[in-house]
Amino acid sequence: MLHTLIHSPYKTNIPLLISMLNKKDDFLALQDGVLIALTNSVFLDSIIFSSANLYLIQEDVYARGIIKNISSDFMLISYINFVSLTLKNKTQMVW
C-alpha cells in the first residue's frame, strides 16, 4: 500500500498513520508533509521505526528550503517516481 502525506504532520493523526504502516508499504511525503522528515521532528523516530519504505518529493523539500535538515532515512524522488509508486501500489491511503 502507498501512504501519502500531503498535510503538515502537525495537522495529521501521525500515530494512527504509523500504526497502519506495514514493512512492505511505501510512505511518500509531499507538499507540507515533507516536514515529517526534519531531523528535529517529534515524529521522525516513529516513522523510521515503522520499517516502511520512506520517500519525499524532492521539489517540495527544495521549495521549503529544508534540504540540509532532512533525515537520511528518506529517499528523495521526483514526481515521475511518484507515478511509479502509484503503479506499483494498487491501493493508496492519502493523509
TrEMBL record:
Pfam families to which the protein is assigned, alphabetical: DsrH
Keyword annotations for this protein, in alphabetical order, are: Cytoplasm, tRNA processing
BP term (GO), one: tRNA wobble position uridine thiolation
Where it sits in the cell: the answer is: Cytoplasm
InterPro entries recorded: DsrEFH-like (IPR027396), Sulphur_relay_TusB (IPR023526), Sulphur_relay_TusB/DsrH (IPR007215)
> What are the GO cellular component annotations?
sulfurtransferase complex
Family to which this protein belongs: Belongs to the DsrH/TusB family.
Q: HAMAP family annotated for this entry? A: Thiourid_synth_B
The free-text function statement in the UniProt record for this protein reads: Part of a sulfur-relay system required for 2-thiolation of 5-methylaminomethyl-2-thiouridine (mnm(5)s(2)U) at tRNA wobble positions.
Quaternary context: Heterohexamer, formed by a dimer of trimers. The hexameric TusBCD complex contains 2 copies each of TusB, TusC and TusD. The TusBCD complex interacts with TusE.
- PANTHER family noted in UniProt: PROTEIN TUSB
Q: Indicate what this protein is called per its UniProt record.
A: Protein TusB
